[in-house]
Amino acid sequence: MSASPSNGGGQLRPLIPEEKIRARIAEIGAQIRRDFGDRTVTCVCVLKGSFIFAADLIRAIGGDVRCEFLGVSSYQGGTQSTGVVKITKDLSSPIEGQDVIIVEDIIDTGLTLHYLLEMLSVRHPKSLSVCTLLDKPANREVEMEADYVGFSIPDEFVVGYGLDLAELYRNLPYVAVYTP
Ligand code: IMP
Ligand code: MG
Questions:
Q1: Is 149 helix (H, G, I), strand (E, B) or coil?
Q2: 60-115 pLDDT tens trace
Q3: Ligand 1: does its nearest atom lie under 6 Å from the Cβ of 50?
Q4: SS3 call for 123
Q5: Using CA atoms, how far apart are residues 135 and 1, in angstroms rounded to an integer?
Q6: Record: fold of 17-156
Q7: Centre of ligand 2 from the C-alpha of residue 68, in Å
Q8: Contact predicate 116/72, CB 8 Å
Q9: Ligand 2 centroid from CA 72, angstroms
Q10: What is the DSSP letter of 7?
Q11: Cβ(111) – ligand 1 distance below 6 Å
Q12: Per-residue buried b or exposed e for 97-114, using 16+ beta carbons within 10 Å of the residue's own CB
């Protein structure tokens, strides 16, 4: 039995180490708390990719934080965004009047987030912002800028810290570039 995931024939090259992720999340959490003062913040964790990031982020925000989950499937097992977003699980309660932050793992083409912003804004939150761990600005198909960005990365396929390739590698504690 091996403690590291098999590489499925591809190569994993470490890109962002655990300590850097931890330090950056502490900064973002503090920034969010400063921006929202003592208000309750509703974090919408976009499943599955952002569940590990969201778990660390909500603890870094501190104060009153609600946590909601939104199940989204954007690409059917491959490495290319199809632009077709399927909601696999909706929020469990209304967000009307709340300060909502969408917590994403990565923004690539921007299509998923574009869809989610439209979907959630019609529910009349008090405010709606976006926090993403990773940003790949080179690959945008729609204009999209997050309010909080962990790391801007080059246009490469990454896995780990919640991000997957065909459901594998989410359990890597760091972010790595995957090359087939
Ligand atoms: P977008 O719609 O192209 O912006 O893609 C958003 C979603 O695609 C993210 O929430 C991820 O789930 C997935 N995604 C985009 N780039 C990567 C990557 O490099 N590795 C793993 N998943 C990715
Ligand atoms: Mg995702």
A1: strand
A2: 999 999 999 999 887 655 566 666 788 999 999 999 999 999 999 999 999 999 99
A3: no
A4: coil
A5: 34
A6: Rossmann fold (3.40.50)
A7: 15
A8: yes
A9: 7
A10: -
A11: yes
A12: ebbbbbbbbbbbbbbbbb
Domain spans of the chain, in order of start: 17-156
Active site residues: 108
**To which residue do tokens 């729609």 refer?**
142
Tell me, letter by letter, the H, E, C secondary structure of 65-91: EEEEEEEEECCCCCCCCCCCCEEEECC
What number does the ligand 1 atom closest to the CA of 75 have? 8
pLDDT grade, residue 24 (50/70/90)? very high
User: Which one of the ligands is nearest to 116 CA?
Assistant: 1
**How far is the centre of ligand 2, averaged over its atoms, from the C-alpha of 132 (Å)?**
10
Task: Confirm or reject: Cβ of 73 under 6 Å from ligand 1.
Answer: no
Rounded to an integer, the average pLDDT of 130-156 is 96
Q: Is the Cβ atom of 163 under 6 angstroms away from ligand 1?
A: yes
Q: What are phi and psi of 126, to 5 degrees?
A: -65, -45
Strand, helix or coil for residue 118: helix
136 CA: nearest ligand 1 atom: 16
